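Please go through the protein record below and see whether the fold suits the sequence. Record follows.
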Amino acid sequence: MCGIEGVIHGGILALLLDEVAEWTIIARLGRFGITRSISIRYFEAAKTDTEIIVESQIISHDDKNAVQRSTIHTADGTLLAESTSDWMLPSPSVLARVGSADRATLQEFLAKYSPKEEAVEQ
């Protein structure tokens, strides 16, 4: 996972940024996303002996598209990398036609992670 000994390879950081964005779509929208584009800026070296925090936020979305901002920080808040990514939000039927999983399996997966109604305090 290193390009230079002790420094996480930028491609691994890109993978983390992309993956956290996908899981944010699943958790917040109850959908699957397919990355259309991702733009990454690296600010500091991510050292292998440092705890990192990877976060993502949906900036905008409609029924077919989403835009996200994802970040990697150290535990003390130093920004290491950030990305902006554009996503297509296909239906499970479309994914089943192009992939190897059937529609029912995809819907069953999403049901496990779909957003839940937040409890309302009374």
Residues 2-111 form a domain with the Thiol Ester Dehydrase; Chain A fold (CATH 3.10.129.10). The two ends are 49 Å apart (CA to CA). Residues 10-29 form the longest helix (20 residues).
